[in-house]
UniProtKB/TrEMBL annotation:
Protein name as catalogued: Uncharacterized protein
Keywords (A to Z) from UniProt: ANK repeat, Repeat, Signal
Entry-linked InterPro entries: Ankyrin_rpt, Ankyrin_rpt-contain_sf
Annotated ANK repeat ranges: 51-83, 118-150
Signal peptide start and end residues: 1-20
Family annotation (PANTHER family): ANKYRIN REPEAT DOMAIN-CONTAINING PROTEIN 39-RELATED (PTHR24171)
Source organism superkingdom: Bacteria
Organism: Mucilaginibacter achroorhodeus
Length: 176
């Protein structure tokens, strides 16, 4: 009898909010199978945790490609911002280890002209990080190399500061 009661009551206790909180736990534990299950059960893909981050932001920040794929398959918002104004594209562009994640995000047509709290676009973030592959991908995806940040610098200015001729070439010739 208790077993039957538990089977009836348990689903009622598992609200979308509980699923969402469990989604963040599953992401932090790098448990892609649990993420997939929670998404199937209706977890809120745009829920925000106590830091104001969505599941996609959390997965990108922790470099979890499999979970990013699951979230993108459910049409997670690729233009969502964290508390500093950074989008998932900016976060991935800043780290060379996340070039595959950046490629996945770009395939979902993010707004590449969006700026963070420092006035930086994803292209400027990538150039500051010295991430030549990300710079090339973003330029070839339509990022504007002439946009300036709050310091009145363009991506090419950061590439020049690093003496990164390859990146300067990409930024001045339009990639390819």
């Amino acid at each position: 009898m208790i077993k039957k009661l538990a089977l009836v009551v348990l689903p009622l206790l598992c609200t979308a909010t509980a699923f969402s909180q469990n989604l963040f736990t599953a992401i932090s534990e790098r448990d892609a199978l649990a993420v997939k299950h929670l998404l199937y059960k209706g977890a809120d893909i745009e829920a925000k945790d106590s830091n104001g981050e969505t599941p996609l932001l959390s997965a990108v920040k922790s470099g979890q490609e499999r979970i990013v794929i699951l979230l993108l398959q459910r049409n997670a918002n690729v233009d969502v911002k964290d508390k500093n104004g950074n989008t998932p594209v900016m976060i991935a562009a800043a780290r060379t280890a996340d070039d595959e994640i950046l490629n996945l995000l770009v395939q979902h047509y993010p707004k590449l002209s969006v700026k963070n709290g420092m006035g930086e676009t994803a292209l400027i973030v990538a150039a500051k990080a010295g991430n030549k592959e990300a710079v090339n991908l973003l330029v070839n995806s339509g990022a504007d190399a002439n946009t300036q940040d709050k310091q009145h610098k363009k991506a090419v200015d950061y590439a020049n500061e690093q003496n990164n001729g390859g990146m300067v070439s990409i930024l001045t010739t339009g990639g390819k």
